[in-house]
Specification:
single chain; 391 residues; alpha/beta; Aspartate Aminotransferase, domain 2; 5-stranded mixed β-sheet; 12 strands; binds pyridoxal-5'-phosphate
């Protein structure tokens, strides 16, 4: 039976495993930066053309990192993947490796602050960057042109959970010959149909749901073998954004339980979002799994789930949001997401502090907005905690 035909739950446990001569059951951590050659001729040959399981230096690749790359590529349905030191190293690597001065990139405006920074950097080096409202297909259609090299967007935006119609945007991009690059963190690899719907390059911050325990930073660029090995890898290996083998090992272990964790977190999120709807302290409960979400139908088609993130907006603005945050006992105030522990974030004063008031207003990042990353605790305990915090 071909390994690639197995179901994701099976692949998440076994795919890509390489065993040493000792036959270890758990994936080994090859905590080595270098590799020994039997002869000078072998070293020369490997530098000319390294075979698929031949390594030179951990900045280029490492057996533990390769196991993680193979496993996530199989789950995502791409030919290959390159593992990076963080999610941002992956975004930076994919975009800088592919663009040159004069190229044009169209991006959704609602982006993680650091992703926005990378696009500003591209503009500084002569790439023309246009921003659109990710949910408005007319704006994508108007912005994409014959010089468009790539489109870039978060399939579900941070923190207001807007869902981009991936297939529709990919069709527009492909008609212009552009590459579709998707930051798929909020969708998670569990609910991803990104490649099937037209994504060419899929990026994850493995720091989030793949680790699932908030322990280590890592990222990954998934794509065709050509894009990963001929475009992204040369850039990554020479600029130093490779993953640590130890972190690759943490992420390999994370992948084994990711499906169970993320499905449980999404089920709790749906329960919590429904329980919070109509609460008198809230002006909005934003969750793609709720029927009143503006892109509910797209979310269900694209992910089959509302995901593990909820945003709530408090009537009383910043003061009310801070008071609620300070009363939360189980839910922790922090800024990670996808963790086993539930986390509440106040985007306006933390992750999105850098934006101007006008930009925040444009993106719906109101003073009363709290972003919730739902963890693995009992959903009833979380609802009770949120209810007492909202007063
Ligand atoms: C966290 C995050 C990133 C960056 O990932 P790091 O691992 O923190 O570098 C990029 N995009 C999105 C949507 C994220 O949530």
């Amino acid at each position: 039976m071909s390994e690639t035909k197995l179901h994701p739950r099976t692949q998440a446990v076994h795919h890509g495993t390489r065993r040493s001569q000792y036959g270890e059951m758990a994936e080994a951590i090859f905590l080595t930066q270098g590799f020994v050659y039997d002869s000078a001729e072998e070293a020369e040959g490997r530098f000319q053309q390294a075979g698929p399981d031949e390594f030179i230096y951990a900045r280029y690749g490492n057996p533990t990192s390769r196991m993680f790359e193979d496993r996530i590529a199989a789950l995502e349905g791409t030919e290959d993947a390159f593992a990076t030191a963080s999610g941002m190293a992956a975004v930076n690597g994919a975009m800088f490796a592919m663009c040159k001065p004069g190229d044009h990139v169209v991006a959704a405006r609602a982006l993680f602050g650091s992703c926005l920074y990378v696009l500003e950097l591209l503009a500084k080096f002569g790439v023309e960057v246009s921003y659109v409202d990710g949910t408005d297909l007319d704006q994508w259609r108007a912005a994409i042109g014959p010089c468009t090299k790539a489109v870039f967007f978060e399939s579900v935006s941070n923190p207001t959970l807007e869902v981009v119609d991936l297939k529709a945007v990919a069709d527009l991009a492909h008609a212009a010959g552009a590459t579709v690059v998707v930051d798929n963190v909020f969708a998670t690899p569990v609910f991803s149909r990104a490649v099937e719907l037209g994504a060419d390059v899929v990026i994850y911050s493995a720091t989030k749901h793949i680790d699932g325990g908030g322990r280590a930073l890592a990222g990954v660029i998934c794509g065709t073998r050509h894009f990963v090995r001929e475009v992204a890898e040369p850039y990554m290996k020479h600029t130093g954004g490779a993953i640590s083998p130890f972190h690759a090992w943490i992420m390999l272990n994370g992948l084994q339980t990711m499906d169970l964790r993320v499905r449980a977190q999404a089920a709790s999120s749906a329960t919590i979002a429904a329980a919070l709807q109509g609460h008198p302290a809230l002006s909005r409960v934003i969750y793609p799994g709720l029927a009143d979400h503006p892109q509910h139908a797209i979310a269900m088609e694209q992910m089959g789930s509302g995901g593990t993130m909820i945003a709530i907006d408090l009537h009383g603005g910043k003061e009310a949001a801070f008071a609620a945050l300070n009363r939360m006992r189980i839910v922790k105030i922090s800024n990670n997401l996808g963790d086993a522990k539930s986390i509440a974030t106040h985007p306006a004063t933390t992750t999105h502090q850098r934006l101007t008031d006008e930009q925040k207003a444009h993106l719906g990042i109101t003073p009363g907005l709290i972003r919730l990353s739902v963890g693995l605790e009992d959903a009833g305990d979380l609802i009770a905690d949120l209810h007492q915090a909202l007063g």
